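Quick one from the shared queue. A colleague (R.T.) flagged Sulfotransferase as missing a structural entry in our internal table.

Convert sequence to structure tokens.
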Amino acid sequence: MDSKLDIFRRELVDVQGIPLFWSIVEEWSQVESFENRPDDLLIATYPKSGTTWISEILDLIYNHGDVEKCKRDAIYKRVPFMELIIPRLTNGVEDLNDMQSPRLVKKHLPVQLLPSSFWKNNCKMVYVARNANDVAVSYYYFYQMAKMHPDPGTWEEFLDKFMTGKVAFGSWYDHVKGWWEKKKDYCKLYLFYEDMKQDPKCEIQKLLKFLDKDLPEETVDKILYHSSFDMMKQNPSANYTTMPKFCMDHSVSPFMRKGVSGDWKNQFTVVQYERFEEDYEKKMKGSTLQFHSEI
């Protein structure tokens, strides 16, 4: 068997009850012992919640809106995915260790699996949450094209896995609630994908304030323009088209698919929606977290 192929479509493996890629679990000691630096900025999200979008915005902020500088490399090199380790292909820990400060560090881990150095050094953290309906749909299409995931099966089968947390990085419900509950204790900004879609300039201003950065109005407008979905979809350094096809097959589904809120209505049947909503109410009961399922 081709050595490139035998690392893909494997079943997930649990770490403390959280399903992760087998290759992350094999190198878990590297992930767990990752040494964060005090001036790191952690970007944390559940998958398919605007991770690449917020990463591009922050790289533009860190480079004062210099668009050419932000095309220096692919987004996954500029903002390494810390826990992603795939034999012969990538090691986020090593990539970050080789980077100069200040670093942007991407993570999908639930809050309880975050390496202890992030809490010890009290670095700033930005979390982005997106409504569960749209995440489930986007994740289903991502599973199809990104071959590190197990086979997603049918939409119905995948939706069941999503609702029970049997997908990579575990339960969406626990993930968004876990990070939400930590936001008061640490230097953390909690943003919502739907707010970013509705008023991106306002959310960029929130980021600037949180980071104690002051940029001229024209630079903010430039960041706004170059981090728009249409511009990023055309930008090879942001749209993941530089990833080899044996890892991500854009002919199955583009990495940047639609980038809208409310697309779940085109996927869910009435029965699926009713079942999903009933389950959602149970799992989110008692939480102060509020989401917009469309804008």
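The CA atoms of residues 177 and 287 lie 7 Å apart.
Residues 270-284 form the longest helix (15 residues).
Added to the table.
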